[in-house]
Amino acid sequence: MEESFSIEEVIQLLQAVLNTVDVPPTEIPAPLILLANVNKKGLSAREVAKKIIVRQAEAGAPVGPLPDGQESISEKMEYIRIQEILEHLIQNMRIRVVLPPGTPVTAAGVGADGVPVTVQGATTGLAIGTAIIQ
C-alpha cells in the first residue's frame, strides 16, 4: 500500500526534524579570528541598548520620557533584555583563542639540580586555546 503526503505535510515534517537538530556553529579559521579581534572595546549592555533605542527612533517608534515625564518602560526593558543576553553569553559562550606564529614565550621553573631555569622562545605555528568573556 503506497502512502502519499501533501506538500504541507512534507514541509511540516521537515520543519519538525530541523527544529530538533542542534547544528553547531560554523568553525572560523584561526587566522580570521586573530585578525578580527584587533581594537575591540568589549561588550556593554548600555551601549547596545542605546543603539537599539536610536534605531527604534529611526524606525518611527516613540522614544524618550513618557508624556508625564517618567522614564520609558520599553527603554528600561530594552536595557534589561540586553543585560540578560550578555549574561547568557558570559555564562555559556565558547571562545577559541589563537596565538600567531612568532609569539614570544617565556617559561620559568626549577631544573633537575634545583637551580632556577628560565627559557625564552617563540611559537612556531598557530597556538589555539579557549577562553571566557567577562
What report would you give on this structure?
- By secondary structure, the chain is an alpha+beta fold.
- The protein has four helices and four strands.
- The protein has a domain at 42-110 and 126-134.
- The protein has helices at 7-20, 30-36, 45-58, 73-92, and strands spanning 95-99, 104-110, 116-122, 127-131.
- It has a two-stranded antiparallel ribbon. Strands 2-3 form a two-stranded antiparallel ribbon.
- The protein is flat and about 75 Å long.
- The relative contact order is 0.12.
Summarize, please:
This protein has four helices and four strands, in the order ααααββββ. With 134 residues, it is an alpha+beta fold. Helix 3 crosses helix 4.
Question: Which class of secondary structure composition applies to the elements?
Answer: alpha+beta
Strand content: 15-25%
Main β sheet profile: 2 strands, antiparallel
Tell me roughly what share of residues is in helical segments: 40-55%
Kindly report the oligomeric state of this protein.
single chain
Compressed to H and E, one letter per element, the order equals: HHHHEEEE
Give start-end ranges of low-pLDDT stretches: none
Strand order of the largest sheet: 1-4
Please tell me how large the radius of gyration is. Answer: 26 Å
Mean pLDDT: 86
How many H/I helical runs? 4
Give me the count of strands.
4
Tags for this model:
single chain, 134 residues, alpha+beta, 4 strands, 41% helix, 18% strand
Secondary-structure blueprint of this entry?
Layout: H1 7-20, H2 30-36, H3 45-58, H4 73-92, E1 95-99, E2 104-110, E3 116-122, E4 127-131
Antiparallel strand pairs: 1-4, 2-3
